[in-house]
Specification:
The protein is an alpha/beta fold. The protein has twelve helices and 15 strands. The protein is about 40% helix and about 25% strand. It starts with a helix and ends with a strand. The mean pLDDT is about 95. The structure holds prephenic acid. InterPro entries: ACT-like_dom_sf, ACT_dom, Chor_mutase/pphenate_deHydtase, Chorismate_II_sf, CM_dom_sf, CM_II_prokaryot, G/b/e-P-prot_chorismate_mutase, Preph_deHydtase.
C-alpha cells in the first residue's frame, strides 16, 4: 500500500473516532447533570482508576500501556471540563513541579489557578474558589514537605487522590557554567541535589526561593551577577534559559508524591491508601499502644512523620499512611482502637494507591 492509501484509511478511522468521542461527550454531559442534581463530586478518581485498569487489561493491540493512559487522561480531562467549569489550584507560578503534577492528573482541558504558597492552595479550595488543590507531600530523597503536613491539622479538606511524579532537576542559566556564582532554587530541590552541588559548585551562594519557576526568572534577571537556577526543564523553557546539565538530582529515581485535596474523599477501589493524623496522650507507652491497633488488625503502615503540635512545646502530631480504605472493616476497627489511646484522631482521606 502507498502512503496516500494508508492516510486515507487513517482519515476514515479518525472520523469514526471523533464520532465516538462526540457520543461519549453526550453521555458525559448527562453524567454531569446527574452529579449536579445529586450533589456528587465531579472528579471521580475511583471511576477513572477502574476505567484505566479495565482498558489496560483488555488491550490486545500495539499501543503501550503508557500511551493508553495518556490518551485517556486527556479524554477524561475533556469530560471533566464538559461536566463543570472545573478549576484546580496549585503552587505556582506556571511551570512548577506541582503544576506538572496537576496536569498529569487532570489533563489540559480543565482550568488551573496558580497560587503563591501552599496555604493559599488550601484556602482557595476551602472557600470554593477552586474545586480541587494539588500540593506536594513528600519526596523520595528529601522526605516530608512539612508545611503541607501542618496545613492539614486545621483544615476541613480531604485527600481524594495521589500523584507520583519523577523529578528530574537541571542546571539552567543564560550565562556560561564557569561564570556562575549564585544558585537559585526551592529548598526541596537543593536537598535533592545536595551531593551534586557540593561536587560541582562548592563555593556558590545558594539562595532559596518560593518555586523553581521563580528561581528560573531570577536566573534570567540576575544573569549579570552570575545567577543560575536548579529546577525542571519546563521552568527553563518558560524563561528562555539554556539547560547546562540535566538529571543532577542525587538519586536517579527521585520522585515526589503529590496529593489532590477537595471537599470529599474517594470511595473504595480495592487498592487504597489512607492518611490519618493523631495526637497521643502524654503517658509512657502511648505511641506504642496506639500503633499496636494496626498490628492487631494486620494493617500495613507505610509512613510515619511527627510534627510539633504548635500548641504546647514538645507535644507532637503524628501523620501516618496505611494500606486500606477507612470504610474497610479492619481499618475502621483499627481507627476506633487507635482513638482509645489518642487525644485526637483525624482521617484525612482514603484514595487509590497508584504507583505512578
Ligand atoms: O463517570 C464519571 O463519573 C464521569 O464523570 C466520567 C469520567 C469519564 O470521562 O469517564 C470523567 C471524569 C471523572 O473523573 C470520571 C470519569
Amino acid at each position: 500500500m502507498n502512503l496516500d492509501d494508508i492516510r486515507k484509511q487513517i482519515d476514515l478511522i479518525d472520523q469514526d473516532l471523533l464520532n465516538l468521542l462526540s457520543q461519549r461527550a453526550d453521555l458525559v454531559h448527562e453524567v454531569g447533570v446527574v452529579k449536579k442534581r445529586d450533589n456528587l463530586q465531579i472528579y471521580a478518581p475511583e471511576r477513572e482508576q477502574a476505567l484505566l485498569d479495565r482498558l489496560v487489561a483488555m488491550n490486545q493491540g500495539r499501543l503501550p500501556e503508557k500511551s493508553i493512559k495518556a490518551i485517556y487522561r486527556e479524554i477524561m480531562s475533556a469530560a471533566l471540563a464538559l461536566e463543570d467549569d472545573l478549576k484546580i489550584a496549585y503552587l505556582g507560578p506556571e511551570g512548577t513541579w506541582t503544576h506538572q503534577a496537576a496536569i498529569k492528573k487532570f489533563g489540559h482541558s480543565v482550568g488551573y489557578s496558580p497560587q503563591p504558597n501552599f496555604s493559599d492552595v488550601f484556602d482557595q479550595v476551602a472557600r470554593r474558589q477552586a474545586d480541587y488543590g494539588v500540593v506536594p507531600i513528600e519526596n523520595s530523597t528529601e522526605g516530608a514537605v512539612s508545611h503541607t503536613l501542618d496545613l492539614f491539622v486545621d483544615s476541613t479538606l480531604h485527600i481524594c487522590a495521589q500523584i507520583l511524579l519523577r523529578i528530574e532537576n537541571c542546571l539552567m542559566a543564560s550565562i556560561a557554567r564557569e561564570d556562575i556564582k549564585t544558585l537559585y532554587s526551592h529548598p526541596q530541590v537543593f536537598g535533592q541535589c545536595r551531593n551534586w552541588i557540593l561536587k560541582n559548585f562548592p563555593s556558590a551562594d545558594l539562595v532559596e526561593v518560593s518555586s523553581t519557576t521563580k528561581a528560573a526568572q531570577l536566573a534570567k534577571e540576575k544573569a549579570h551577577e552570575g545567577a543560575a537556577a536548579l529546577g525542571g526543564s519546563l521552568a527553563a523553557e518558560i524563561h528562555g534559559l539554556t539547560l547546562l546539565e540535566s538529571a543532577i538530582q542525587d538519586r536517579a529515581t527521585n520522585t515526589t508524591r503529590f496529593l489532590v485535596i477537595g471537599e470529599k474523599t474517594c470511595p473504595p477501589t480495592g487498592k487504597d491508601r489512607t492518611s490519618i493524623l493523631f495526637a497521643i496522650n502524654d503517658r509512657p507507652g502511648s505511641l506504642v499502644n496506639a500503633l499496636q491497633a494496626f498490628e492487631h488488625l494486620h494493617i500495613n503502615l507505610s509512613k510515619i512523620e511527627s510534627r510539633p503540635s504548635k500548641r504546647k512545646d514538645w507535644e507532637y502530631i503524628f501523620h501516618v499512611d496505611l494500606s486500606g480504605h477507612c470504610e474497610d472493616e479492619n481499618v475502621s476497627k483499627a481507627l476506633a482502637e487507635l482513638a482509645n489511646h489518642c487525644s485526637m484522631v483525624k482521617v484525612l482521606g482514603s484514595y487509590p494507591d497508584v504507583s505512578e
